[in-house]
Write a structure and sequence with these properties.
Blueprint: H1 3-20, H2 25-38, H3 44-49, H4 61-73, H5 77-85, H6 90-94, H7 101-111, H8 116-124, H9 136-151, E1 156-157, H10 158-173, E2 178-183, H11 185-188, E3 193-194, E4 196-203, H12 206-213, E5 219-225, E6 229-234, E7 239-244, H13 250-258, H14 261-273, E8 277-279, E9 282-285, E10 288-291, H15 295-301, H16 317-322, E11 337-341, H17 352-361, E12 366-372, H18 384-400, E13 406-414, H19 425-428, E14 433-437, H20 446-457, E15 464-465, H21 483-492, E16 496-500, H22 510-518, E17 523-526, H23 538-547, H24 561-568
Parallel strand pairs: 4-7, 11-12, 12-13, 13-14, 14-15, 15-16, 16-17
Antiparallel strand pairs: 1-3, 2-4, 5-6, 6-7, 8-9, 9-10
Helix pairs in contact: 1-2, 1-5, 1-7, 8-9, 13-15, 20-21
The protein binds one DNA strand of 29 nucleotides through helix 2, helix 4, helix 7, helix 9 and strand 5.
DNA sequence: GCCGTTTTCGGCCCGACTGTTTTCAGTCG
């Protein structure tokens, strides 16, 4: 996937145009296209190949040509020319909090600053505070910002962000006079990774909330404190914004701060066309507020069904909501079991009994044990003989009647270099759920990888393709693979796609899930738990499924056992 | 540069906060 590279190039063009300062709408257009591509979820090269770049909102003929050029040659003429005219490392300067295009232009024009080192030098020498419109405080802020960039402000996994968020929400909830605390932004939309927290508060006394918020124990820096809005940084640089919104505007605030930006821009345009105005305080006709306290009411007045936060990405949810065609998204309670878990028979941490106790405690109706197979030696993968023993052990455990969930016999079988499997068919034939996964040769070319996976899916004993894209969020990109072809082969061989719920994977991504759904493929949401507490990853899987527009009907582990077994008996 | 149930030309989201300003520009979300 080269989406990120393309987005980066467009952003650099936008910034350079802004620094040049000739036209302020052109850079805005490039930024809009950049945002659309960032949240695409589908491989932009595939879209380019289909000649459908201009279907991306914000991408017209001119930008489409530049994207094509970038994909083919790695270059964009305009960008090259801009870099010559404005030889400034805009991307690294822009990363400094508090520094935007205008500041970049100023320090470049007046001080010849072209990169982070020169910016730091200028700040250290006090030359920035001498500039018009700049002062000592701004200079100090820039110095601190440079340190933050150097430390590396990165996004957090959704799971980590939620772990940071929870105690802060509790802390705020206990401030006297606080009526409601909701975290909005990308966390509420359940994005895979989160850059900062946006907390919304309904309280009697805003000032009291602000005072308490900025002295939260883990605060290292207060970057803003006003009467309704404050920003802090936590240890490690994670930013948390807090807003206090009046009760009768709380729903509008929720809507506004949940975003996404593009979803909100569309919504405000719909309001405008209806002679209304939408902002974080409410929906207004002239001076009169027609909605504000209730988020759903805003959608309703604008003629839309309520759009769940996970869908608010301007990816067709507005149109669907207008036509009453939003899918009824899967809920956590729909899940009846987990089809991919590990025990200490391979690289899991808990015994099969411990895992079963945990599954029982979670009220599962069925539970599949699927340890690794022999090629994954590092994970103590099983050969046929050990797997055979496992199968017999599970028969005994089921017979014991000790656990409520029916224990399903499974394995996570390795796909070898040539696409064959590392366990003999006669053993696979005895398993209830055969999941196949790639764990090796992840740098294979797209062609080879796609052939490998498709070949594996043609084995008649295979039920599920595990973590189909192989990515590790913030760590490892997806491997090169033509998922569209994989989906087709899966469909004709009645193979299910896994949505791996591990928060570091969330594999498939939302765009892939939608594509799979469109093709009529069924999905299994699995935790891939290696420890008992990882069974709780299921929530992240459900969030991701919702982001991928999946309904209960699209997900096989919402089925009662009998129906599930019918799906699995190919 | 993009886009259109007012428009193929003429618009382009907007409010809070900060800092450096006596009334506003820049950044951020």
């Amino acid at each position: 996937m080269r989406n990120r590279e393309v987005a980066r190039a467009l952003k650099e063009i936008a910034l350079l145009l802004e620094v040049e300062g000739k036209d302020k709408f052109k850079p805005r257009a490039y930024r809009r296209a950049m945002r659309a591509i960032t949240s695409l979820g589908e491989d932009i090269e595939a879209i380019a190949k289909r000649d459908e770049l201009t279907e991306i909102p914000g991408v017209g003929k001119a930008i489409a040509e530049k994207i094509s050029s970038f994909l083919e040659t790695g270059k964009i003429d305009l960008l090259e020319r801009l870099r010559e005219r404005v030889p400034v490392k805009v991307m690294e300067l822009e990363a400094v909090p508090g520094v935007g295009p205008k500041t970049i232009k100023l320090v470049y024009d007046e001080l010849g600053v072209t990169d982070l080192d020169l910016l730091e030098k200028a700040a250290e020498e006090g030359r920035i505070s001498d500039l018009k419109g700049m002062g000592k405080k701004t200079e100090d802020q820039i110095k601190e910002g440079i340190q933050l960039v150097r430390v590396g402000l990165e996004r957090k996994l959704l799971s980590e962000a939620m772990a940071v968020c929870e105690p802060i929400e509790l802390y705020i909830a206990e401030i006297p006079g606080v009526r409601k605390v909701v975290t909005t932004g990308s966390l509420r939309r359940r994005r895979e990774t989160v850059g900062d927290l946006d907390i919304l508060v309904d309280a009697e006394d805003a000032a009291k909330v602000m005072d308490a918020f900025v002295v939260y124990e883990k605060v290292t820096d207060v970057s803003a404190k006003g009467s309704t809005k404050s920003s802090i940084r936590l240890e490690g640089g994670f930013q948390v914004d807090l807003r206090v919104i009046p009760s009768d505007s709380f729903g509008a605030g929720l809507q506004y701060f949940t975003g996404s930006v593009d979803h909100n821009v569309r919504l405000r345009a719909i309001a405008q066309n209806a002679g209304l105005k939408l902002n974080e305080y409410g929906l207004f006709r002239g001076e009169e507020k027609v909605a504000g306290s209730d988020e759903a009411e805003i959608y309703s007045i604008l003629g839309l069904d309520y759009v769940p936060p996970e869908l608010r990405e301007n990816k067709g949810e507005i149109e669907a909501a207008q036509q009453g065609e939003l899918p009824e998204l899967i809920e956590h309670d729909d899940i009846r079991g987990d089809l991919h878990t590990h025990t200490d028979a391979s690289d899991g941490s808990n015994t099969i009994e411990e895992m079963l106790d945990a599954a029982d405690a979670r009220g599962f109706e069925y539970f599949c044990i699927s340890d690794h197979t022999q090629s994954l030696t590092i994970a103590n993968g099983m050969d046929e003989a050990r797997l055979q023993k496992c199968i017999e052990e599970i028969d005994d455990l089921n017979a014991s009647g000790r656990w409520k969930p029916t224990i399903l016999k499974g394995a996570e079988v390795d796909i070898l270099a040539d696409g064959s499997l590392d366990i003999e068919d006669e053993v696979l034939a005895q398993l209830d759920v055969v999941t196949v996964s790639i764990h090796s040769r992840m740098k294979d070319s797209k062609e080879v990888m796609t052939d490998r996976v498709c070949h594996a899916l043609e084995n008649k004993y295979v039920h599920v393709l595990g973590h189909p894209s192989g990515r590790l969020l913030l760590k490892r990109p997806e491997f090169e693979i033509d998922l569209e072809r994989v989906f087709e082969v899966a469909k004709s061989n009645r193979v299910l796609m896994e949505l791996n719920a591990a928060p570091s994977r969330l594999d498939l991504n939302a765009g892939n899930l939608r594509a799979a759904r469109r093709m009529g493929l069924k999905v299994a949401i699995n935790t891939d738990a290696h420890k008992i507490h990882e069974l709780d990853f299921m929530s992240y899987g459900v969030y991701q499924a919702r982001r991928g527009w999946l309904t209960k009907e699209d997900v096989v582990n919402t089925l009662p056992l009998k129906k599930l077994m019918r799906v699995l008996s190919k």
